[in-house]
Design goal:
Length: 287
């Protein structure tokens, strides 16, 4: 989406920014401040699109605003007016198309103005680790972040803190690729597993980008196309179907309140260690 928006919006001045069928609030904060400002760039950190704005009168050096867009579960950005659930309309100067439409059925998405780098209303962005596709995401830094984590690896990934940009689908796919159970405590991953997970995350995201993402329900590219990565998923949403590697039936469990898909053979459940309530230690027992 960032790649589609960049050539379209960079350099354009915001003419108007309006809520349509939406209740004003933090999810749509300070939109009016965008009016008269120019889009300096179209960036992204994790799942947040970040468009720094330049006010013509301030020149260089002043603190900038950013237009922040987060799709949530069902958000869709398009240059064509949607048939329903339109929340935000932003009009720009320049050649057609001039209008960006934000449709969001379930209203988990956000379109707001925030001071650049200050994301008080957006704790996920404020606490996010390096973007998964940025040079700052290194195996060394990833290993350090996971070593300090007190939760399951799937939960750690979903928090966006060790690395930003890995959602539910791609977390399941990456963990399947490296054969690690999603409930394995993040700090217990061995160094080789951390390096493999680092590589798997980048590979999965790059492959999905090539296919223009994964359309489960609402997701569309800016031009209205569906992402084609759905067909290439190994475990996500494939409960009961054969693992592409070993043929065992894919299982679905819940980790940190998120539906989680895995191969019970390729990703064996971690043996319980200290503090496990579910499986009290028994002498010699391995079952
Ligand atoms: Zn398998």
């Amino acid at each position: 989406m960032r790649r589609e928006l960049e050539p379209w919006l960079t350099g354009r001045v915001v003419r108007s920014a309006e809520l349509v069928d939406a209740v004003p609030g933090p999810k749509y904060a300070r939109l009016a401040r965008a009016v008269g400002q120019r889009v300096a760039a179209v960036g992204r950190h994790g799942k947040f699109l970040l468009l720094p704005l330049e006010a013509p009168e301030t020149g260089g050096g002043a603190a900038r605003d950013e237009l922040v867009i987060h799709l949530g579960m069902t958000g869709v950005v398009s240059a064509e007016p949607p048939v329903s659930h339109l929340r935000v309309v932003i009009r720009f100067d320049g050649p057609e198309p001039q209008t960006l439409y934000f449709r969001d059925v379930r209203r988990f998405g956000r379109v707001l103005i925030a001071p650049e780098g200050v994301y008080d209303g957006l704790p996920t962005l404020q606490q996010a680790g390096p973007d998964a596709l940025a040079p700052a995401f290194t195996p060394e830094g990833f290993a350090r972040a996971l070593a300090h984590s007190g939760v399951a690896i799937k939960t750690a990934l979903m928090s966006q803190r060790p690395v930003a940009g890995v959602g539910n689908i791609y977390a399941d796919e990456a963990l399947w690729r490296i054969g690690v159970h999603p409930e394995r405590p993040a700090r217990l991953l061995r160094r080789g597993q951390v390096e493999a997970l680092h590589g798997a995350i980048v590979d999965v995201l790059m492959a999905s980008l090539e296919a223009q993402g994964t359309t489960l329900h609402d997701y569309r590219t800016v031009n209205g196309a569906v992402g084609a990565y759905l067909e290439r998923l190994a475990v996500y949403g494939r409960t009961g179907r054969p693992c592409p590697r070993c043929g065992a039936a894919i299982a679905r469990i819940v980790v940190g309140a998120r539906g989680t898909h895995l191969c019970p053979v390729c990703q064996p459940r971690p043996r319980s260690r200290r503090g496990s309530r579910a499986a009290p230690r028994r002498a010699g027992g391995r079952s």
